[in-house]
Amino acid sequence: MARAGLGEAWRCLFANDFDPLKAETYRANWGDEHLREGDIWSLEADDLPGLADLAWASSPCQDFSLAGGRAGLGGGRSSAFWGFWRLMQGLAAQGRAPKTIVLENVGGLLSSKGGADFASLCAVLVEAGYGVGAVELDAAAFLPQSRPRVFVIAHRGAPPSALRAERPGHGHGAAVIRAQARLAPAVQAGWIWWRLTPPAQRNTQLEDVLEPDDAALWRSPAQTRALMDQISPAHRRRLQDQGPPLVAAAFRRIRVEAGRKVQRAELRLDGLAGCLRTPGGGSSRQLLIIDRGQGLRTRLISPREGARLMGLPEDYRLPRAATAAFQVIGDGVAAPVVRYLASQLLEPLCAQAPAQVAAE
User: Between 312 and which of 92, 261, 290, 307 could a Cys-Cys bridge form, CB atoms 3.0 to 4.6 Å apart?
Assistant: First the structure.
């Protein structure tokens, strides 16, 4: 999805994923000429061709997620970053270090282990000669889905003055500012407050990405009643106050009430879907609650609707099974956010030279 967001001006040199399902999805959309399926630790710098302007890495987020075990960079899955970094070091030793690196992850990266993981990440980048900065962006600025993500952007050499700010600005929320303040002085010396122009106001709502009602697969009245019974009294009042016409997203969470674990259906009534997730680790697919004046009906968000919520084109190929499709979608990066970063920072950093990308 990073490749989809970068667009046709970029040429891919190399791509890697160890997940067979995601690798197959990549092949379905881009072919397999540049794809190497397998563990990143099995690769060597010689496996990566050419001299890339950009290396983009999105290591698995479970160890950073606020909902996960918070094992950090040393955890089993997110240690994929160190496999990626080993390759970057190998390229540097051959004089082929990429000019720019982007590392994408969940917001928990900024606070994982009290900020120690983020500090380690920034330290290795600065020690390797990169200036580094981070921005936190929510896909809700572009799409009707709440999906905040952190993007660490590192660049070799002095970036144009127009791309750096003297103080925090757009994309530098409180979590980024706190994380930067915890860095060692030597790392702070290499910090860059990237200058971003706020995007135009989003003009789409959740309803705009939905299939027509007569093409949807609706849940039974009994299933709808069961879902309504899981809504807390406070959310039920909000639902009643909203009234028809109504399109709301609902997602189930386990909450502790009076010392007991209770499954609750929590609602979004602000025209956004909640953050799409993979259908594992206790997370379930989001549902829709719709009332157009003939009574409440409910259904699951479809894979194609999920793809639209990620900003993917209609012809983007997904696995046929819904669970597999959401396994891909839920771990992805919203394509319009990538396009925004490319236009605002990545392409200017490449000085409008013919661009190519090595993606992980």
Answer: 307
